[in-house]
């Protein structure tokens, strides 16, 4: 299985609440909106089709390092899931 397919299956396995949490974290000031656009584009595909993604984002700067963008997105999704499941500290309560 390719890394791209792993990312696709990870996105498809997220619940509605997890997707919402990731989108909220990705819309913070100072974050790059390209990763959120890539997330939405992959989530909208039924079978994963990377050539379609490459043509969809043809003029974008992150396409030159598309594998890096996918790896960052994968990492960001996992980070979002980790923070969602992290216990709340007593000070934060």
Task: Describe the protein's architecture and organization.
Helix 1 (3-13) runs parallel beside helix 5, helix 2 (16-26) packs across helix 5 and helix 3 crosses helix 5 (66-85). The protein has helices at 3-13, 16-26, 33-44, 50-56, 66-85. The protein has five helices and no strands. The model has no long low-confidence stretch (mean pLDDT 86). The longest helix is centred in the last third of the chain and has 20 residues, at 66-85. It is globular and about 50 Å long.
Indicate the topology:
Blueprint: H1 3-13, H2 16-26, H3 33-44, H4 50-56, H5 66-85
Helix pairs in contact: 1-5, 2-5, 3-5
Strand content: under 5%
Total strand segments: 0
Element order: H for helix, E for strand: HHHHH
Put simply, the count of helices is 5
Supply Rg. Answer: 14 Å
Shape: globular
Q: Low-confidence segments, ≥5 residues, pLDDT <50?
A: none
Average pLDDT, all residues:
86
Q: Output the structural class.
A: mainly alpha
Residue share in helices?
Answer: 55-70%
Largest sheet geometry? none
- What is the terminal-to-terminal distance? 42 Å
């Amino acid at each position: 299985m390719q890394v791209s397919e792993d990312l696709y299956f990870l996105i498809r396995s997220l619940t509605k609440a997890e997707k919402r949490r990731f989108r909220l974290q990705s819309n913070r000031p100072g974050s790059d909106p390209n990763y959120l656009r890539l997330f939405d584009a992959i989530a909208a595909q039924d079978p994963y089709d990377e050539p379609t993604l490459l043509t969809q984002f043809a003029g974008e700067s992150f396409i030159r390092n598309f594998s890096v963008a996918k790896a960052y997105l994968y990492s960001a999704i996992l980070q979002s899931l980790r923070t969602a499941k992290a216990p709340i500290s007593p000070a934060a309560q």
